[in-house]
Amino acid sequence: MSFPRFAYAGSEASLPVSYWQTYLPHVERGERRSFEGLGGKKIAYVAARTTIARGAIVLVGGYSESYVKYAELIFELNQAGFHVYAMDLRGMGRSERLAEDPMMAYVDDASLYGADLKKFIVSKVKKEWQGPVFLLAHSTGALPVARVLAEDPKLVSKAALTSPLFKLKTSPLPASLAGLIAQVASSVGLSKTYVIGKKPYDPSQDRPEDSSVTHSTLRAKTMLELFKTMPQTYLKGASFGWIHAISDETKTLKERAARIEAQLLILRAEEDYFVDREAQSEICRLIRNCNIEDILGAKHEILQEIDGIRGPSLNKIIRFFSMNP
Q1: Helix, strand, or coil (residue 239)
Q2: pLDDT tens across 173-189, in order?
Q3: What is residue 170's predicted lDDT score, i.e. its pLDDT?
Q4: Is residue 10 part of a domain?
Q5: Terminal CA-CA length for the chain
Q6: Model's pTM, two decimal places?
Q7: Is residue 183 part of a domain?
Q8: Using an 8 Å Cβ cutoff, are 83 and 54 in contact?
Q9: Domain that holds residue 198
Q10: Alpha-carbon Rg of the chain, whole angstroms?
């Protein structure tokens, strides 16, 4: 079976039109459902299939993200010959929220992200697709991927991670101190309180040309329009409980990393202000088959970057998944 050479679908110049007229409708025509995660929480997903597939990619977004943010990427991966199964983390996107304030990032235990992901792969993806299954995750989404790969080393053979959150960047405080403060705050009943010193995120006040996550003004502008149109696709801010849970999950990463057998590709953004770059190197060194590539000039959201950064990065991922083990 042969596939056409992959070339990414569009450009940022056309995105303000193509996102709404092509990419988002393509994703919304997919199978949009939910399954029950641990504790009965509803976990939203979409299955966007292609006619002839060489593999299936399970896509896990990052903090505050919904799969609709990745409509452009999902369309491109389908065009490249991959089924895409995209899952929203519990408490985020279209999944069931976990705090009384639905705009607050909160989770009791970050290991639940991994439990949800494993159930999704086993009970949904692998039940209907018997070919190769790969994982693609961004930022916070890398935590459940790392947990699943360590707990079940034979479940998938490859995973690609963009700007993985292996340690929070909490400047000006050290990550250890920020985690301790969150732990103490949670222990005195403030787990579902917004982190002090952070203003609730308001997309109407954001300027796309000043984006801290991408150099692409047009992609940033399109995402801001998405947030205004679909408020459930973003969160206003993190709670002490969320910071505590994420800090706890990252503390055990080194021990789990040594058990990972899958091939890993890590794309590391040069200008990342949200996650610790050195922690990415440390974890990669502990994994027996891990390759890390620096994406020069990229901010945190590599796959939302300008075409000159995004296109080559996406092609690296496609080639990685297309090569034989």
Answers
A1: strand
A2: 888 888 999 999 999 99
A3: 82
A4: no
A5: 18
A6: 0.95
A7: yes
A8: no
A9: 15-322
A10: 18
